[in-house]
Amino acid sequence: MGKLAEDHSVESYLRSLDRLLRRVPVEARRDLVEDIAAHIDEGRERGRSDSQILAALGSPQAVAAPYLDDLMQDGNSPRMRTIRRVLGIVALVTGLFAAIVSRSSDSTIVDMAFGPVDLQGQNINYGYSDIFAAIQLLIFLALALMVAASAVMRPVIARKYSFAAAIVMTIVVIFCGTGLGMFFVPSMVTAWMLAGANNLKLSQVHRAKRSRTIQLIGAAALLIPVLFDLGGLATGAVEGGGAYAYAAVGLLCGVGFLLKYRVALWATSVVGAGLAALSIIDQGMLMAAFWLAGITYFYFGLYGLLWFEKRNAAG
Amino acid sequence: MLEQREKIATNIRKGVLEYCVLGSLASEDKYGLELAEELMKRHLTAGEGSLYPLLARMKTAGLVETRWEEGGAGRKRKYYSITDRGQVMLNEFRAVWADITEQVEQLLGGQDGEAS
User: Fold this and answer.
1) B36-78: per-residue pLDDT in tens?
2) Which residue in B has a C-alpha nearest to residue A40's C-alpha?
3) Which pLDDT tens digit goes with each residue over B4-42?
4) Residue B34 resides in a domain
5) Which structural domain, as residue segments, surrounds residue B53?
6) What is the pTM of this model?
7) Does residue B76 belong to any structural domain of this protein?
8) CB atoms A58 and B50 under 8 Å
9) Residue among B47, B54, B71 minimizing CB distance to A58
10) Which residue of A has its CA nearest to B60?
11) ipTM exceeding cut-off 0.95 for this assembly
12) Bridge partners, B65 (sequence order)
């Protein structure tokens, strides 16, 4: 596929135009390619040569430019800038918070009450010293800053940068394993949300589709554990006030999330933040449960607040 | 200097192309190639292709509408026509354009207007 061949072949002209428009809503994309194809047919009928026609049309880039500019503008709208800024702040706050919680967990994990003694907490302990602890805090902060930085970058740079930052955070989480890695999960999730928010090539239609998917996944993640809890209550396998309280909170958040009620979305993320904060309290391995459940609630709630379309103007 | 001239022309065309399309359609419904050829002949657009995104946008804005008609060789042709809304916009533009050209001419004519 040399440049020359491309310039002279109608088919590859149309193909490269179609490719350029791949992020454009499907109907507009199809219409434009069809318009141009009809234009070429009409031109041929008038006896113009293919190369004449294509030269008069201008490059596929020039033809697609208005659509691509629109996409850029969508991505640069005040709403998108707000979302990026919010995510930047979330990245900083969660990074700092995770650092504090992970420090508070040191004593917990050494005293872990199960598993072979010589393996306990080995993943994260490495014989902690104060210096190591300080370095760990700095690492958390550095990574949080790295993730947050794209919120204030120029959009074109931010797109590539935030994607790279998300990949780095993912590697960090995998590399650190289930112990320390768990505390980097918020930064990783924020990084991916920022990567999505910075992707200017994503059209509103794509975003709407994506947010519907998240709506279903989130509702499942919030509601399925509640179903287990309700089942447990029904059969008597679990009992006590806590199980009822959880069922009530989980149902309200989960159903509200599915129905996209703003109040429920706020409640979901506040509950999540609260649960994550509870894990500061030394509770052994229960801490991980609080932490991960907190992250789940917080981020699904946050996602809904940022991306779900408002149900009504009053909301 | 030719480059400068092209740059100036491109900038001005950008603002008026939409109304040139409306003006052209006001006299007669046209299909894409017809419109493109007319605008190219008058040097109002640098590329024929950029006309189609513009037409699509104008259709969304309700300034033009399309219908399919039998064309040559048994193919359907997409004809564009101006809507009432488009007509209103065109009249608004006429008023603005008359004012701007008058003012610009006065200004340029007043300051050494004969220099090339």
Assistant:
1) 999 999 989 888 999 999 999 999 999 999 999 887 667 789 9
2) B33
3) 988 899 889 988 999 999 999 999 999 999 999 999 999
4) yes
5) 2-110
6) 0.60
7) yes
8) yes
9) B47
10) A28
11) no
12) B81
